[in-house]
Specification:
The chain is α+β, with helices and mostly antiparallel strands and 220 residues long. Helix content is 39%, strand content 14%. The C terminus is likely disordered.
């Protein structure tokens, strides 16, 4: 195994101090540490590293996405050295494209399609379809990372039991009980079905910690 320590920032989401005017100020907040990874089980993924031309060509885009000039500078100044280091150390490198329009002819994308076809063939030839349900066994590194997150980010070992007990007894808040005439969804697929049924193509959200669980829906 090729272990490496990677600097990481994490947020300690405990403990709320109810003696304070704002109890959340009791949280540990942002902290830093070094987390151990195995380079043979790690891939670097490059995503949204786009060529967005210039303000002169796409002024409307640049007026909306003010981060584009910064992204361009970072790509020019730092990305080449990073990718060179990754490649020189034989670390797996993946790239994410936003659609097929600019990658459909590239060998790496064709190879991905071939791998998907192979997996589909294995699944189709399996009576039990066990291949699609097979999961990788967690490694000791993954277990260590999960334990670290549980202890130091959210929610702290000493809070675990109360949280588990609470989730076992969840209910709607009295003020938020659904009426009998109001539909309820518990998955993205169910929500999409409701949107299709009622012709809904915009969603406006309200609630708490929405950013933790909100998913973007691309197709209705």
């Amino acid at each position: 195994m090729r272990h490496v320590i990677i600097p990481a920032n994490y947020y300690q989401n405990f403990n709320a101090d109810y003696l304070l005017e704002f109890p959340a100020e009791g949280y540990g907040g942002w902290k830093k540490t070094g987390l151990k990874f195995d380079l043979d089980e790690l891939a670097v993924v490059v995503m949204h590293a786009w060529d967005c031309s210039s303000y002169g060509k796409y002024p409307g885009w640049y007026r909306v996405a003010e981060w584009l000039p910064r992204a361009k500078r970072i790509c020019q100044m730092y990305l080449p050295e990073l990718l060179t280091t990754v490649r020189d150390r034989n670390i797996r490198l993946f790239h994410v494209a936003s659609d097929e329009s600019y990658c459909h002819m590239l060998p790496g994308y064709k190879r991905t399609l071939e791998l998907m076809a192979q997996e589909h063939a294995v699944c189709s030839n399996s009576i039990s379809n066990s291949f699609s349900a097979k999961r990788l066994e967690p490694s000791s590194i993954l277990e260590d990372l999960n334990n670290f997150r549980m202890k130091n980010c959210s929610y702290g070992l000493h809070n675990r039991q109360d949280i588990e007990d609470g989730f076992e007894n969840l209910d709607f808040a009295p003020e938020a009980k659904p009426l009998d005439s109001e539909e309820i969804a518990v998955s993205s697929d169910q929500l999409v079905t409701l949107c299709r049924t009622y012709g809904i193509n915009h969603l406006v959200y309200t609630g708490f910690n929405i950013n933790w669980c909100l998913h973007k829906i691309f197709y209705l």
